[in-house]
Amino acid sequence: MPQAQTAELNLNEILRQVAREKDIDLERWISALEDAMASAAKKQHRIKEPVRAHLDRETGKFDAFIVKKVVETVEDPLAEWTVEEARDHKANAEIGDEIHLPISTDGLGRIAAQNAKQVLYQRVREAERENIYNEYIDRVGEILNGTVKRFERGDIIVDLGRTEAVVPRSEQARHERYSQGERIRAVIVDVHKQPKGPQIVLSRTDPRLLVKLFETEVPEIYDGTVVIKNAVRAPGERAKVAVFSRERDVDPVGACVGMKGSRVQSIIRELRGEKIDIIEYSDDLVTFAQSALAPAKITRVSVTHQGEVPHLDVIVEDEQLSLAIGKRGQNVRLASELIGSRIDIKSESDVKDEVADALARMLQTAMAQTPAPKQADVLSAPDLSPAAADQLQEAGYGEVEALAEAEPETLLALEIEDFDRDQAESLIGWAKQQREERMANLDIGPFRAPEAAPAAGASMGDEDFMAALSRAFAESEQQRSSSVAAASALLGGGEPAEETEEVSSEEKEP
Question: Is residue 295 reached through a cis peptide bond, with omega within 30 degrees of 0 on the bond before it?
Fold first, then answer.
């Protein structure tokens, strides 16, 4: 057999064998060889113009040539010619044609061969990485089994057989430790084409790992009878899974737990002891929130804001508060992520204090809105001339309290014109009557006067002030009753009681 035919057979067989081993398309492999040969020829002849190589499939011979493109206006002299320049080499050259100028490929030196090797290696690596990308990009979210191969700056490099994957430090659970050669299961979270490092990124902390483990262990989830609505994790510590059954006869929580907890225990072992709360999904946000905060027992849940992110107020018994919040707020944070709502948790004692403060502020507001009291003075006394009233005011007897404590002789000593003893006694009697009526008014209604009112008590007002104050309280009584009823319903878990016209004495007491 001629030597050329033997070389041709050997070359063709080698190309096919390498293409099969590297899982690279034969045409792409040949294209990589041609690019490598063109690079070697360009390096050997020190040519700056574009060089292209071609492999003859029949003879196995490489041909290399300079490529010139025919254009109307030359912008790159190294790669382009005008029509006139091109017709010196090809008589019928037209714009858009390519002119090929052959160059020799014989006797390529060691440097040129090394350069060709580097180009070929780079092209092979690019083809391999593209194949890996195409194979795994549609498998994001699946679980892969591999072997820990080595550690690089805290990252775990996993051997998958045909390729490698990486578990970055950020995707590792803090409590998990692996040694070289140990088996590892992780979920694919990303596949990229970057030139450095493994292309497949795995995770041990992603919630999708938990979902896939449940699909593996629970047949009802795998066949679609039970659906996982959502899953959240605090890796290595606690996880919450919301499940829903499409068939009434199938208990979703029981199916996931398994006989004596066999199914969920298998998942817990795989996650190295991570606690898992399995919760039945509900379309009712309040019911779902009560289940999501397990194992704490919830007294009442109310929706205070409906929007893109609903806001829930949750009330628990005092001894359940720490359990509902969880270690470092973990339980309430996971429940909030699971149901997609903001959750505020309060104890019953805190709510009672808030209600009491709100009632106190309401009563203070009612008092503040009451009109200022009108003071009784000597000007309002009957059968007293204005001139006499002015003289009494100048002498310090303008207030009712001062007149009630005065003696007739004291007033007569002021020598007021047309003011005799009968008028003095009548004026003092009127002042005492005004004082008694004011003190009596202070002891009626919902506000009680102190047993021993101080001398400054007169500043609290006369009967006009008390009448206005009583009216203000009567107007706020209905609002106060509604607030008390609503607070009682909130704390007791029942509906607010309907308002009635009859109010008990306990309710009237401020």
Answer: yes
Residue 101 in contact with residue 113, Cβ under 8 Å? no
Report the alpha-carbon distance of residue 366 to residue 469 in Å, rounded: 9
Contact 152, 126 (CB under 8 A): no
Task: Using DSSP bridges, classify how beta strands 226-234 and 238-245 pair: parallel, antiparallel or unpaired.
Answer: antiparallel
Place of tokens 């948790």: 345
How do the pLDDT tens digits run along the chain, 510 residues long? 444 444 444 666 777 777 777 667 777 777 877 888 888 888 778 888 888 888 777 777 778 888 888 888 888 888 888 888 888 787 788 888 888 888 877 766 676 667 767 777 787 788 888 888 988 999 999 999 999 999 998 899 999 988 899 999 999 998 889 999 999 999 999 999 888 888 899 999 999 999 999 999 999 999 999 999 999 999 989 999 999 999 988 999 999 998 988 999 999 999 989 999 999 999 988 899 988 998 888 888 888 877 788 888 888 888 888 888 888 888 999 999 999 888 988 888 888 888 888 888 887 887 676 555 555 666 677 777 777 777 777 777 777 777 778 887 877 777 777 778 877 788 888 878 878 877 776 544 444 434 433 333 333 344 444 444 444 444 444 444 444 444 444 444 444 433 333 333 333 333
Q: Are 226 and 255 in contact (CB under 8 A)?
A: yes
**If we measure between CA atoms, which residue out of 62, 59, 69, 48 comes closest to residue 102?**
62
Q: Which of 122, 12, 15 is nearest to 59 (CA)?
A: 12
Reduced to 3 states (helix: H, G, I; strand: E, B; else coil), residue 59 is coil
Distance from C-alpha of 206 to C-alpha of 15, rounded to nearest angstrom: 43
| Token couple for 156 | 């775990």
Rounded Cα distance between 351 and 361, Å, is 15
Alpha-carbon distance 452 to 377, whole Å?
Answer: 23
Rounded Cα gap, residues 458 and 436, in angstroms: 11
Pairing of strands 98-103, 80-81: unpaired
Give the domains, in start order, of the chain with CATH numbers. Answer: 3-131 (3.30.1480.10), 140-205 (2.40.50.140), 369-510 (1.10.150.20)
Token pair for residue 32?
């990589």
CB-based contact 36:117 (threshold 8 Å): yes
CA distance 471 to 474: 5
**Type and span of the H or E element at 221:** helix 219-222
CB 285 within 8 A of CB 310: yes
Alpha-carbon distance of 377 to 393, in angstroms, equals 9
3-class state of residue 177 by DSSP: coil
DSSP letters of 93-162? --TT-EEEEEE--TT--HHHHHHHHHHHHHHHHHHHHHHHHHHHGGGTT-EEEEEEEEEETTEEEEE-SS
Q: Is 350 helix (H, G, I), strand (E, B) or coil?
A: helix
